[in-house]
Amino acid sequence: MTVRIGLVGAGGMGRAHLARIHNDLAGAKITAVADIVLDAARSAAEPYGAKAYDNSEALINDPEVDAVVIATFGKVHAPDVIKCIEAGKYVLCEKPLATTAEDCLAIMEAEQKAGKKLVTVGFMRRFDAAYNEMKAVLDKGDNGEALLVHNRHRNPSVPESYTSRMAIDDTAIHEIDTMRWLLGEEITEVRVDRPKLTTRRFDHLIDPVVVVMRTESGVLIDDEVNVNLEYGYSIECELVLENAAVRLGDQEKIFIRDIHGDRNAMCQSHIDRFQAAFTTEFQSWINAVDAGEHTGSTSWDGYAATAVVDAAVESLENDGKVVKVALVERPAFYA
Ligand code: ISE
């Protein structure tokens, strides 16, 4: 069967997903696009012969939409995710699942009521080949247990609208989810340190920051979030085991030799760096929807990540104090 997909949110990310579904993936077609700006929905839908709506509800209830991709701002995710669940439709929601733990819990409640896992959160790094190789080394167990993980999340620049909170809920949230998935355990406490600030930042922004987390078993994780580093989009990760250290491979795409010397070309954005991961993520999701199955991260994962974000933001706003992560008991539904 061809899965008929509707997109809510016709911004850059949503349009990139449409192009990917249309050009690179099998088993799906785009039948509708919704955006509160109807012209944006129309221009995104037109190349695919899809319908355009100015509201998400009409799209979610459209009988020609089998499954929904949500690529709007995090703050408005929750009501649409719940509408998808109530309509019995699979939904891939870009991160964050929601911006408050309460909203995530409401999503989990609706999903449990529906009795079926319908929600996938767009944490694409779970589909990145290098992170998967790293996880395979850890899970094999030959090199002992995980002790520490060092992360670096560097962006070339951010717009003036980017806030200090976004360093956590928009940027570090990727490491928060990836570390939970990699280590297979929850993060229990967090603090946010402030190194010397860069002069390259907008005045309102605290940049860089270092998010320091500890897991249930005591693994210590550090994450340098540094979003005005100019040179490129660079994601680094080193997992320290008892008798080995495992690092993500080089992320350069090509090697250049010219008048400036020998060098590697850097990725410039997450779309560039994680292109293959996005493709694998979406193809797995389409295949799973077609088979009536769930894939990828669950609403519980979305909730747990948001709970860590909440604790980190509290630390950021309180001079880097250590904050415990408050999690409800994990429902058996999400075991
Ligand atoms: C953006 O939303 C992302 O998801 C990127 O992966 C991250 O590097 C960037 O900082 C965020 O703004």
Automatic annotation (TrEMBL):
It comes from the Bacteria. It catalyses: myo-inositol + NAD(+) = scyllo-inosose + NADH + H(+). This is Inositol 2-dehydrogenase. Involved in the oxidation of myo-inositol (MI) to 2-keto-myo-inositol (2KMI or 2-inosose). Its EC number is 1.1.1.18. Belongs to the Gfo/Idh/MocA family. Transmembrane segments: none annotated. The keyword NAD applies. GO terms for molecular function: inositol 2-dehydrogenase (NAD+) activity; nucleotide binding. Keywords: NAD, Oxidoreductase. The gene is iolG. It comes from Actinomyces urogenitalis DSM 15434. HAMAP family: IolG (MF_01671). Homotetramer. The keyword Isomerase does not apply. Residues 138-322 form the Gfo/Idh/MocA-like oxidoreductase C-terminal domain. It holds the Pfam family GFO_IDH_MocA_C. InterPro entries: Gfo-Idh-MocA_inositol_DH, Gfo/Idh/MocA-like_OxRdtase_C, Gfo/Idh/MocA-like_OxRdtase_N, MI/DCI_dehydrogenase, NAD(P)-bd_dom_sf. Residues 3-123 form the Gfo/Idh/MocA-like oxidoreductase N-terminal domain. GO terms for biological process: inositol catabolic process.
